[in-house]
Amino acid sequence: MTDLDSxxxxxxxxxxxxxxxxxxxGEATVDEIRKPFAMSQPSISRHLKVLEQxxxxxxxxxxxxxxxxxxxxxxxxxxxxxTQYRAIxxxxxxxxxxxxxxxxxxxxxx
Length: 110
Fold this sequence. Notes:
The protein is built from five helices and two strands. The chain has helices spanning 4-11, 14-24, 30-34, 41-53, 72-109, and strands spanning 57-59, 68-70. The mean pLDDT is 92.
């Protein structure tokens, strides 16, 4: 089970979101991830640790290399959570549309 609090905390940082955007393209090592950032390797590693603790990425051990990749299950949990609220928002918008239509009809009859 994904802890949504840690997921949203991890996603709150723009650097971590940029790292995820890079990993959407495929696995990458710390050095490959670090290239577009003006950050040290330890700084990037700390960001990766937060993402991994949140369950958003996983590390595969390949000899001395440790490529990271996106963990799709974590994003499915986020989508499930958002889907619950999407239904509520859609129902609220449908009611609002009904009220606006009723007001328009009342205005047309005046």
